[in-house]
Each structure stands twice: as structure tokens, then as C-alpha cells.
Amino acid sequence: MRLTDKVVLITGGGSGIGRATAELSAAEGARVAVADRDVTGARETVARIAKDGGEAEAIQADVIDGAAVRAMVEQAIAAFSRVDVLVNNAGRSEGNDILTIDEATWDDTVAVNLKSVYLCSKAVLPSMLERGSGSIVNISSVNGLTGLGEEPYAAAKAGMINLTQNMAVAYGPRGVRANVIAPGTVRTPIWNARLSKNPNVMDTLKAWYPLGRVGLPEDIARAVLFLASDEAAWITGAVLPVDGGLMAGRYRMAQDLGAE
Ligand code: NAD
Questions:
Q1: Which of 83, 156, 158, 209 could form a disulfide with 110 if both were Cys (CB 3.0 to 4.6 A apart)?
Q2: Ligand 1 centre from 91 Cα, in Å?
Q3: Are the CB atoms for 21 and 225 separated by under 8 Å?
Q4: Counting atoms of ligand 1 from 1, which one is nearest the CA of 19?
């Protein structure tokens, strides 16, 4: 098992990618602190892990509230004595087109996707640095790599990449690694609002993916597990797209050119 004796703290662990990561981490031997603003979702994740014989603790926390984040880390350490791996996964997207986005939506979206990484990392880092080891995995997005709309979300996800690189440089010499995953489209509840407007949105999107499908939460969880584990002991500051090939090139353009 690849996370034996590790303690993993996952934000946004009550749904989607966070839940899949929590479940896979537990299956690989980790004890898992499952944090979410939605404690019902976190408890359900914990129940699923317990049913499979794993060990997990649900924690209610809003990752844009500094006091709540500090309490979250204290609760995780009280339950499992330390945090070896922090997965900054909580996130959500609101707002498209800067001409219509209001200031409150901008501020809130940037906070959930970027300030949260600063707050959670700041709360966990001192104990990691004290022990001289730790791994932080941040969940960005392909929206943070190129222009795909959703401006506040995309700008925050791009900022997350730079923040991770700075953490890798600053804390690598003291044994802490920090890496980013940039997922493409993954079928999770984050898409529910758009699916209710257009039930076929996934079919439209999958045509953009060289590997011919959108992602599953498990596709991302497996990459998180790798970067979190000691298998990635010499990897820090990396940005790993897990995106079915979306960022590899201009797939549709290449097809159109090939057809000429
Ligand atoms: P999801 O909606 O299924 O899960 C997100 C979880 O984060 C939810 O449980 C939600 O309650 C929690 N959360 C949101 N705001 C929070 C806050 N302020 N404090 C604490 N918890 C909060 O979505 P998902 O698809 O699993 O998304 C997980 C991460 O992956 C997000 O950062 C998202 O931006 C990123 N991502 C998702 C996709 C995709 O297509 N699903 C693509 C690229 C990146």
C-alpha cells in the first residue's frame, strides 16, 4: 500500500474528486481527515471509508475562513497526530465574462480557489517543517493553463500554480514538496447546474478530448495519490495535466487540418 502510515487531509472531501481521493487514500493505507463546508458530504465520505475498513474523520470547515482553517488542522492533528499530506481540493466556479461578473462573485470565487490554498498551506506547513517532511497537492484546472472562460475561477487556478511553485522552492530544502494537478472536465456534482441547463454538455465536451471521454473522479485521485506518495519523492513544483490529452495540442484543429 502506497500511503501506509500517512495522514492525509483533503479539503472538499465530501464530493467528487475529493471523495474519490479520500477513498483511494484510505484504500492505500492512509488515515484521512475529510474536510468540507458541507459536513453531510464529509460524513458520507467517512462512512464509505469506514464500510471498507478504513479510518477517517469528518471535519466541517469553510476554507476561506482563516479561523475555521486553523481549527480544521487542529482537529485533524488531534484525531491522527499529524498531517503528512494536504490536498487543497475544495473549489467552485462562478462567473463568466468580466463584463457581467459582479465584484462579490469575483472576490468569492478567487477566495475559494486561491486564498484557500494560502490559508490551508499556512496552517499545515509549520508542523510539516518541524518534522522535515510533507507533501502538498493542489487541484488547479486546465482553465488555469489557458483561456477557456470562467475568468475568476481561471485566474485563481492560474495563481494557484504560481503559489505552488513558490512553495516548492521555499520549502523543498526543508523536506516539503508541493505539486499541482490540472484536471480537464471531470464528471462530478460541480457540473450539476450546467447539466440541468444542457443534459448533453458532456457529449459536447468529450469531442475535444483526444482520449475520447471526459474524466472520472478516480482518474484524478490516482494522480493525486502518486504525487502525494513517496513514489514522487523527487518531484516538486510540477504541474501535471490530467486531462485526456486536452492540453497536448489543438485536437479539433488538427483533425480539421488532417481532413483537408
Ligand atoms: P464538487 O462540487 O463535486 O466538490 C467540491 C467540494 O468542495 C464540495 O464538497 C464542496 O462542498 C466543497 N467546497 C466548496 N467550497 C468550499 C469551501 N469554501 N470550504 C470547504 N469546502 C468547500 O467538485 P469537484 O469537481 O470534485 O471539484 C474538486 C476540485 O477539482 C475543485 O477545486 C475544482 O475546481 C477542481 N476541478 C474540477 C473539474 C471538473 O470538471 N469536475 C475540472 C478541473 C478542476
A1: 156
A2: 4
A3: yes
A4: 26
How distant, in Å, are the alpha carbons of 18, 94, 117, 182, 243 from that of 216? 12, 22, 23, 14, 10
pLDDT of residue 259: 87
Residue 260: predicted pLDDT: 80
* Active site (annotated) includes residue 118: no
Determine the atom of ligand 1 nearest the C-alpha atom of 189: 3
In the annotation, is 153 catalytic? yes
Question: Is the CB–ligand 1 distance for residue 194 below 6 Å?
Answer: no
For ligand 1, whether the C-beta of 188 sits within 6 Å is yes
SS3 per-residue string spanning 43-87: HHHHHHHHHCCCEEEEEECCCCCHHHHHHHHHHHHHHHCCCCEEE
